[in-house]
Design brief:
Elements (H helix, E strand, L loop, with lengths): L10 H11 L2 H14 L7 H4 L2 H11 L5 H33 L5 E2 L1 H10 L10 E4 L5 H10 L3 E2 L3 H7 L2 E5 L5 E5 L13 H5 L2 E5 L2 E5 L2 H12 L9 H13 L5 H10 L3 H15 L5 H9 L4 H11 L7 H12 L5 H15 L8 H18 L1
Parallel strand pairs: 1-7, 2-5
Antiparallel strand pairs: 1-2, 3-4, 4-5, 6-7
Helix pairs in contact: 1-2, 1-4, 4-5, 6-11, 8-17, 10-11, 10-12, 10-13, 15-16, 16-17
């Protein structure tokens, strides 16, 4: 049963993942091959984010004296320092949200570091990610703006078309405010199970909550499968760390049910299969068999292929249409068709409909340029 993950890591990235995540001779062999093939001063940004984890694994293997490992140690220490500062900032925000009676789920890096990595130097964090209930998103945005955070685009416009919005403060720090967890699932009640199954977490001494193990894995796989100019290979490390760190707390049957009801069979099936085949992740065979039994339509497969392809294409409109359709379950086809251009206008932060074609072509040209630079 072979994975067909289209945006899977390159051979060099996979060697790095194996060196950073496996144990014993397998990790040592991957390390020796990776260092022979890759100049550490010229690694891609996605690989660079794995270097602290590589250092920790090499340290456990006893390879700590050579100059290259010393360089990795410096990257690890810098990551530890920056993460401490960011988590302190996160704790202050969580405390303020709690004082205002706003429920929050901490997402991504902060939660993963607290619950699964057990070392603040292992996983770099670029921003703060939090989820609030959809009906409280406006209050959360107002609170953030009162604390000096500014939204990247108009909040109310983005609220109609997205599941999240990026805020920045005067120092350039970024915060990603979510009112739905997944871009693919933006409809009333979509996050109910996520909130119901949330678990406690301590961030900088402040009590908060985050996703339960199965939902954490679901979020990681779905967030990681999409193509990105910054290679999103860190999802592999995050997913494997969640699986190993959850032990018997990860409910695989619940995960399969969530994947099925949310229409996310292809991305989760392919990412889990990749983890099992390439990194020997303890994903139950019964879980993969259950996902392979789930039917997928031709439209599902086409949209998945477009979403995971690095090639720029106007076909990406189909990916946006699928997301829009799922967010408007009560609307008929004609109503959706009429509303779709307005959705794209809001999504891209445009003022006029006539700007749509030029903006779309600009995004395609930009993606093509980025590909040529790689």
């Amino acid at each position: 049963m072979m994975s067909r993950l289209r945006c899977r890591p390159t051979p060099e990235q996979e060697l790095l993942l194996r060196a950073a995540l496996l144990q014993g001779e397998a990790a040592a062999a991957a390390w020796e091959e990776w260092r022979a093939r890759v100049d550490i001063n010229d690694v891609d940004a996605g690989s660079y984010r794995l270097l602290p984890l590589l250092y920790a694994n090499l340290r456990s293997l006893g390879a700590v004296s050579e100059p290259l490992v010393e360089k990795l140690k410096g990257i690890y220490r810098h990551t530890w320092y920056k993460n401490n500062l960011l988590l302190h900032r996160t704790a202050g925000l969580l405390r303020r949200f709690s004082e205002m009676g706003l429920e929050v789920l901490v997402l991504k890096g902060a939660a993963l570091l607290a619950l699964y990595y057990d070392d603040l130097g292992l996983r770099p964090m670029a921003d703060i990610d939090i989820l609030v209930r959809e009906e409280r998103a406006g209050l959360a945005a107002s609170l953030l703006q009162g604390q000096g955070w500014r939204p990247k685009r108009d909040f109310e416009t983005q609220r109609r078309s997205r599941h999240n919005i990026l805020f920045r403060d005067d120092g350039g720090q970024q915060l990603d405010l979510h009112w739905y967890l997944l871009r693919e699932c933006r409809y009333p009640g979509a996050d109910r199970e996520f909130w119901d199954n949330a678990v406690r977490v301590q961030i900088g001494g402040v009590e908060s909550r985050t996703l339960g193990p199965a939902d954490q894995l679901l979020h990681t796989c779905v967030h990681g499968y999409l193509w990105n100019i910054l290679p999103p290979i860190r999802w592999v490390a995050d997913a494997l760390t969640i699986i190993k760190g959850s032990a018997g707390d990860l409910d695989w049957r619940y995960l399969v049910e969530q994947v099925r009801t949310r229409g996310l069979v292809l991305p989760v099936r392919e990412t889990l299969a990749y983890l099992r085949e390439s990194l020997f992740a303890p994903v139950p065979e019964t879980t993969l068999e259950a996902l392979w039994r789930e039917p997928t339509s031709a439209a599902d497969r086409v949209i998945y292929a477009i979403a995971t392809s690095p090639q720029p294409s106007l076909g990406y409109a189909l990916v946006l249409w699928r997301s829009y359709s799922r967010a408007t379950p009560g609307a008929g086809f004609l109503r959706r068709l009429i509303g779709f251009p307005g959705h794209i206008r809001d999504l891209w932060g445009l003022k006029r409909f006539w700007q749509l074609p030029g903006f779309a072509l600009g995004k395609i040209r930009e993606r093509a340029r980025n590909l040529r630079r790689q």
